């Protein structure tokens, strides 16, 4: 006799951001690699279709004598996601997004992050809310890095943010998801994609995010600072796929005691 739960399985919906569908649920950054060549190879191995970059730290051709990100990441192949890393006020973040729009010929999809201080790079949610409201009013499609507070996450969605991106742990820490309960609450309450952003250190962290029901994961340091970034990028791709499949399959319930793997009813002794 089967002891499978009768609870409905999650719906297998494709990842959709700003009206565009994506096969990959892994989003990757471009910082901290040894050089542009390694950046390109790692992104290729990851299978990612969305690539984020810090507008303030990235050459997109405005400095002709320096290597350009566009030499290894083609906007024709990847969705470019400019971010506001390094901004500590709403004013700076808004200005940075407008600069990105100019550099990318009217590109309006951005990742908003307004940081609180340099030690933890924890999001300043007061400034984030101000910046998000202004950017949305100005026609930007805002994916927003935020704390793992379910109420603030819902408020950002209601303001018009197109994706909510709670941190799993501080940026670059590699600590993994530290508050599974809050991430799960955010996922259950959201009507827009939820993507864990920051804190992933290894493949099992990415898998856990997907098993919690997240729509995707964004990472940079976990790949770029691995001893073998190319192999880690591949591992992260497989981890995302595995975690998504496990979530859709519906895990067995946890039990306090053991149960036999094979049925014993009707057997002979």
Q: Could you please describe the fold and organization of this structure?
A:
Helix 6 links the parallel strand 9 (195-197) and strand 10. Helix 1 packs parallel to helix 8 (229-249) and helix 6 runs parallel beside helix 8. The radius of gyration is 20 Å and the shape is globular. 34% of the residues lie in helices and 15% in strands. The mean pLDDT is 92. The protein starts with 14 loop residues before the first strand and ends in a 20-residue tail after the last helix. The protein has 269 residues and is α/β, with parallel strands linked by helices. A five-stranded parallel beta sheet has the order 5-4-3-10-9. Strands 6-7-8 form a three-stranded parallel beta sheet. Strands 1-2 form a two-stranded antiparallel sheet. The protein is built from eight helices and ten strands. The longest helix is centred in the last third of the chain and has 21 residues, at 229-249. The chain has helices at residues 36-46, 90-103, 125-137, 150-159, 180-189, 203-211, 221-224, 229-249; strands at residues 15-17, 20-22, 26-28, 50-54, 79-83, 109-112, 141-146, 163-166, 195-197, 216-219.
Q: What is this structure's SSE topology?
A:
Elements: E1 15-17, E2 20-22, E3 26-28, H1 36-46, E4 50-54, E5 79-83, H2 90-103, E6 109-112, H3 125-137, E7 141-146, H4 150-159, E8 163-166, H5 180-189, E9 195-197, H6 203-211, E10 216-219, H7 221-224, H8 229-249
Parallel strand pairs: 3-4, 3-10, 4-5, 6-7, 7-8, 9-10
Antiparallel strand pairs: 1-2
Helix pairs in contact: 1-8, 2-3, 4-5, 6-8
């Amino acid at each position: 006799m089967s002891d499978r739960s009768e609870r409905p399985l999650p719906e297998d919906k494709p990842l959709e951001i700003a009206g565009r569908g994506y096969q990959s649920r892994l989003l990757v950054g471009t910082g901290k690699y040894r050089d542009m060549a390694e950046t390109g190879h790692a992104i290729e191995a990851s299978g990612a279709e969305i690539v984020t970059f810090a507008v303030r730290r990235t050459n997109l051709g405005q400095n002709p004598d320096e290597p350009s990100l566009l030499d290894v990441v083609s906007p024709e192949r990847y969705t470019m996601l400019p971010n506001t890393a390094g901004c500590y006020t709403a004013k700076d973040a808004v200005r940075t997004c407008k600069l990105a729009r100019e550099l990318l010929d009217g590109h309006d999809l951005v990742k908003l992050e307004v940081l609180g201080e340099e030690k933890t790079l924890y999001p300043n949610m007061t400034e984030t809310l101000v910046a998000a409201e202004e950017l949305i009013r100005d026609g930007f499609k805002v994916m927003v890095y935020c704390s793992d507070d379910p109420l603030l996450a819902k408020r950002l969605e209601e303001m018009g943010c197109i994706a909510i991106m709670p941190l799993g742990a501080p940026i670059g820490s590699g600590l993994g998801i530290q508050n599974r309960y809050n991430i799960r609450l955010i996922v259950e309450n959201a009507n827009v994609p939820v993507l864990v952003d920051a804190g992933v250190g290894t493949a099992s962290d990415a898998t856990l995010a997907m098993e919690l029901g997240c729509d995707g994961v964004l990472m940079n340091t976990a790949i770029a600072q691995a001893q073998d970034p190319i192999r880690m990028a591949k591992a992260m791709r497989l981890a995302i796929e595995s975690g998504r499949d496990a979530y859709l399959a519906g895990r067995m319930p946890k039990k306090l005691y053991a149960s036999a793997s094979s049925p014993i009813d009707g057997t002979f002794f």
